[in-house]
Amino acid sequence: MCARNSIYTNPKPCKHLADYKLRHGFNTYDSIRYCLKTTPNGRTRVAKHTTKIPRCSFCDRYQGRLYFCLMCSSLWCPTHILLHTQSEKGHEVAIDMDRSELYCCLCCDQVYDPDFDKVVVCNQVKDLPGGSKSKTNRFEASGERSSKRKRLDSGIGLDLKKSKLLVSMRDRRAKSCYPLGLRGLNNLGSTCFMNSVLQALLHAPPLRNYFLNDRHNSVQCRKRSGEKLCLLCDIDAISSAMFSGDRTPYTPAHFLYSWWQHASNLASYEEQDAHEFFMSVLDGIHEKESKIRNSGKDDGDCQCIAHRAFSGLLRSDVTCISCGFTSTTYDPCVDISLNMDTSNLSSSNANKHIKPDEKTSASTLSGCLNLFTRAERLGSDQKLHCQNCQELRDSSKQLSIRRLPLVLCLHIKRVEHSLVRKISRKINQYMQFPFSLDMTPYLSSSIVRSKFGNRIFAFEYDNFNSSAAYEIFAVIAHSGMLESGHYVTYLRLKNQWYKCDDAWISEVDEGIVRASQCYMLFYVQKLLYNKANEDSSFVRISPRRDPLESTAGCSQCNKLMQARPAKDNSSNNFLG
Amino acid sequence: MELLRERLIDCGWKDEMKALCRAHVKKKGRNNVTVDDLVHLITPKGRASVPDSVKAELLQRIRTFLMSAAL
């Protein structure tokens, strides 16, 4: 599906078809409609004679392709249809019976007419199970599930089953073997900042699962709060659209509108900062949730999905230089903003003597994290009151991570403010980052311990934290200048990287990702990452397995499929 | 019929045929090819390249059906 344009040009009709349409308009198309029959897999045939075997009017042949003349409903095989056209004037257009496709006898070629296709598709949609004449919904028993389906109906306009059938048919033809959930987002006017963050959010395992498991029910939400605007409802809608299987780019217009209502100071068509947007969205989600639950819980204990996924706890130790007394405070955070560890940029370092063997080349994530957790001497103008000394003293401050979140969002501060020249500029320096990240050295347990040197005995919270191992799943990269740039998101799904550039999704090599100018890095706890990648049952709730889905895939996947029996229920089948 | 289609897609036959068509169209130019051309081009190759496993499976099914229908 790589770089397929969403707009394709319709082939121009041949002059015979154009003439035909001028003369007869839609009359014959309409009458054909009653002869169209749709098979379960979505193929539409012309089946006028249900008892007789269709045969060529000239040679009686019934094998191979047969054409159905639109004017007189006679049947012809490809060899003899020309005879018919020559003998009867005006009978130039026919339909391929098996495929319901138009054929021009004079051009001897297939022709296309959007109006005809419209008739056929309407018919297909009507005929497929669960159409307008649907009998009782089989899944009524599972109450909630079917209501989610119905809600999707109103959103998409087609029954989910039908759209899945139609889509999986289309997917097969498009050789799309991209994982479920990958879908481009249309740019609504410098909204790449929004699209990039949405891509990352929707693929964060906790959020992805939250929405796929229907944890936010829009119907109930509307009933409860009575408000029409809910960011979570909008994100839920986007999530449904992303995971629907439809690969055409989606337009998150409603979400944009809702967000504008929430962050009215940022509501414009100017480019915004992705990180600012990210914070704003999390805030919006939290606000709505806390309004509903009426709880004044602080962010650390909040159970809204934004906090459950992103909230961590930072520890700040302020130490008096003179006496060593330390005061500790804990602050919740939803992300960590890191300064870049460049030693040869800012003017404050101009005085420092740079040793010749010091590495000043590349910036690394571990370097940034080290910088973040380094004990920083506060300036003499920032003297703090020491409780022990009972007076203002020079102090040093050190940050560490007390509790890691499920999803770790690292924001790389690429803006440099020069107070002297009163300008801001973007730091374009490349920063190296790992795909697997171990956060142990930055935990409070490690940092606090290291203050005392190399000690062996146990400290206050010295539990071996196995949940400090993280795997990267999304990278938001920025290119361009401060005022005008472009954001793209790189997503890692099942160890394959995909580039999400607004509406265009493509597979990319990991080298591209490593070389990109990262702005926001999203890591998720390794256990969750592994689970998300192997557990492929997070697809739309579909108790009935469509026989199509086991065969959807491109030729590479086909080789894999061949090794297994057709209706395999193993979890390796990512549509299973 | 549907089963046959399914099997042919599975084994990559359809993709091979598609590739053949594409190559032909590239050679001739998009506007110089008709469906009939392609059909005449593909038919012999296609018939020959159906995998034996697919043939065997379908023949088996036909046999079974005929036997059950005959009873």
TrEMBL record, chain A:
SUPFAM superfamilies: Cysteine proteinases, RING/U-box. InterPro entries: Papain-like_cys_pep_sf, Peptidase_C19_UCH, Ub_carboxyl-term_hydrolase, USP, USP_CS, Znf_RING/FYVE/PHD, Znf_UBP. Residues 12-132 form the UBP-type domain. One of its GO terms (molecular function) is cysteine-type deubiquitinase activity. Residues 183-526 form the USP domain. Keywords: Hydrolase, Metal-binding, Nucleus, Protease, Thiol protease, Ubl conjugation pathway, Zinc, Zinc-finger. It holds the Pfam family UCH. Belongs to the peptidase C19 family. One of its GO terms (cellular component) is nucleus. Signal peptide: none annotated. It catalyses: Thiol-dependent hydrolysis of ester, thioester, amide, peptide and isopeptide bonds formed by the C-terminal Gly of ubiquitin (a 76-residue protein attached to proteins as an intracellular targeting signal). Its EC number is 3.4.19.12. It is found in: Nucleus. This is ubiquitinyl hydrolase 1. Gene3D superfamilies: Cysteine proteinases, Zinc/RING finger domain, C3HC4 (zinc finger). One of its GO terms (biological process) is protein deubiquitination.
Automatic annotation (TrEMBL), chain B:
GO terms for cellular component: DUBm complex; nuclear pore; nucleoplasm; SAGA complex; transcription export complex 2. Keywords: Activator, Chromatin regulator, mRNA transport, Nucleus, Protein transport, Transcription, Transcription regulation, Translocation, Transport. Gene3D superfamilies: 1.10.246.140. The keyword Translocase does not apply. It comes from the Eukaryota. InterPro entries: TF_ENY2, TF_EnY2_sf. One of its GO terms (biological process) is transcription elongation by RNA polymerase II. Its main location: nucleus. It is found in: Nucleus, Nucleoplasm. The keyword Nucleus applies. GO terms for molecular function: transcription coactivator activity. Involved in mRNA export coupled transcription activation by association with both the TREX-2 and the SAGA complexes. The transcription regulatory histone acetylation (HAT) complex SAGA is a multiprotein complex that activates transcription by remodeling chromatin and mediating histone acetylation and deubiquitination. Within the SAGA complex, participates to a subcomplex that specifically deubiquitinates histones. The SAGA complex is recruited to specific gene promoters by activators, where it is required for transcription. Component of the nuclear pore complex (NPC)-associated TREX-2 complex (transcription and export complex 2). Component of the SAGA transcription coactivator-HAT complex. Within the SAGA complex, participates to a subcomplex of SAGA called the DUB module (deubiquitination module). Belongs to the ENY2 family. This is Transcription and mRNA export factor ENY2.
